[in-house]
Specification:
Layout lengths: L23 H8 L12 H11 L2 H7 L13 H4 L16 E3 L9 H14 L2 E5 L5 H15 L3 H5 L10 E4 L14 E8 L13 H25 L6 H4 L5 E9 L9 E6 L5 E6 L5 E5 L2 E4 L7 E5 L1 H6 L9 E4 L7 E9 L6 E2 L17 E2 H8 L8 H5 L3
Parallel strand pairs: 1-2
Antiparallel strand pairs: 2-10, 3-4, 4-5, 5-12, 6-11, 7-10, 7-12, 8-9, 8-11, 13-14
Helix pairs in contact: 5-8, 6-8
Length: 396
């Protein structure tokens, strides 16, 4: 077994002495590359390089004894000013919880199709219960991903990389080198389909659980795509015929305690690029959805899975379904937050995508142009995770 050498990061990444507790204004100025009062400028490129080469991730920084945020994690004022609490109680914009039991029965199916379709059109987000995934599978999956992230840094550093050749990687912030500031989370990424990642590369601590989770999501994804397809007035198999379930990517996010949660975020506001996302979240909370210019909490429901519409499905539905902005707040709790998302995408990346012809008429012309999924993803990975600018690029 090869020995992994951890590169010692700059002491400035570990401001755990009292002198490192600077005020918010100074931190924000330094985060934007402004020279501080001592004449010392924040060299963002250098700090990014040191953080990346350390292979520690956010959890590793925290384990070092860090007591305040390194400048590269401090977000600009326009982001921080919007970190208002979500609505404190249920309201008309709350995320619906939909019971899927009996959804394959002819008697109950129209009702479930209506509920799912309504949530997809109005909010772009829903939670589902009685989905057929055993509770013990949910618990084991969360525990296994948590166990991976809580290994010693040396164990995780072996797969710290941004290349996807093996289909397995550990990293912090997919847009680390493109974003205005880094977010407070680490990620384990595993390719589930159409070609499963090299199984031996999937960390042993979570390997069996990831493989089982893949089977469950593939089964549930088929049900969800059928319901969403019918909700558009199309045949139940329409989306699957277009390979929309075949390319699946899992990300296991870990949001450790953040010492200054008002200066950063766990995941910046963004919309998902694919067809649908199936998310398993623990009970810590922090996920928020934007609805009518307000942030709404996606409050964890025991045993529920979160489902949201991606940009590709909004495009194919000709704007009937909504892919909406969502974010995760930095975690102020000593208990880490764990979430496991599976992005379902088309595997035929050279096919043309655009609004379904059945949903285009003289009264409602095509809102988007045709494009290939490869073109879409190339643009996605050359921008930071930030709002709806990508989908607007493809508008007709």
């Amino acid at each position: 077994m090869s020995i992994v050498h951890i590169i010692p990061p700059s002491p400035r990444l570990f401001p755990h002495t009292p002198r490192a507790h600077v005020d918010r204004t100074r931190n924000r100025r330094r985060a934007m590359g402004v020279t501080d009062s001592g004449g010392q400028a924040f060299d963002r490129a250098q700090e990014l390089k040191q953080f990346e080469e350390s292979k520690l991730g956010v959890k590793g920084l925290l384990d070092s004894g860090l007591a305040s945020l390194p400048p590269l994690f401090i977000h600009p004022p326009e982001t921080l000013s919007d970190l208002r609490p979500a609505r404190p109680r249920p309201c008309p914009g709350s995320i619906p919880t939909i019971d899927l039991s009996g959804c394959c029965d002819s008697a109950r199916r129209p009702s479930v199709v209506g509920e799912v379709s309504r949530a997809a059109r109005e909010l772009g987000f829903l939670q589902v219960v009685n989905h057929g995934v055993p509770a013990e599978v949910l618990d084991r999956t969360v525990a296994a991903v948590k166990a991976f992230h809580e290994q010693p840094a040396e164990a995780k550093a072996r797969i710290y990389r941004r290349q996807t050749d093996t289909g397995v990687s550990f990293f912090s912030n997919v847009d680390l080198f493109l974003s205005k500031a880094a977010s407070w989370r680490d990620t384990l990424q595993v390719r589930l389909g159409p070609k499963l990642a090299d199984v031996e590369e999937i960390p042993e601590v979570c390997r069996n659980e990831v493989l089982e989770w893949n089977q469950q999501v593939e089964r549930l994804g088929s049900i969800l795509l059928g319901l969403l397809s019918e909700g558009l007035g199309l045949s139940p198999g329409k989306l699957q015929e277009l390979t929309c379930l075949d390319a699946r990517m899992m990300v296991g996010h870990y949001y450790p305690y953040c010492p200054q949660p008002d200066l950063t975020v766990g995941l910046t506001s963004h919309a998902d690029p694919g067809v649908i996302t199936v998310l398993l979240q623990d009970q810590v909370g922090g996920l928020q959805v934007k609805h009518d210019d307000e942030w709404v909490d996606v409050t964890p429901v025991p045993g529920a899975l979160v489902v949201n519409i991606g940009d590709i499905l909004q495009i194919m539905s000709n704007d009937e379904y909504k892919s909406v902005d969502h974010r995760v707040l930095a975690n102020p709790s000593q208990e880490p937050r764990v979430s496991i998302a599976v992005f379902c995408n088309p595997s035929n990346r050279e096919n043309d995508f655009g609004p379904f012809p059945e949903l285009v008429s003289s009264d409602k012309p095509a809102a988007f142009r045709q494009f290939t999924f490869n073109e879409y993803m190339r643009r996605f990975f050359t921008k930071e995770l930030d709002g709806k600018s990508l989908i607007n690029y493809f508008r007709a």
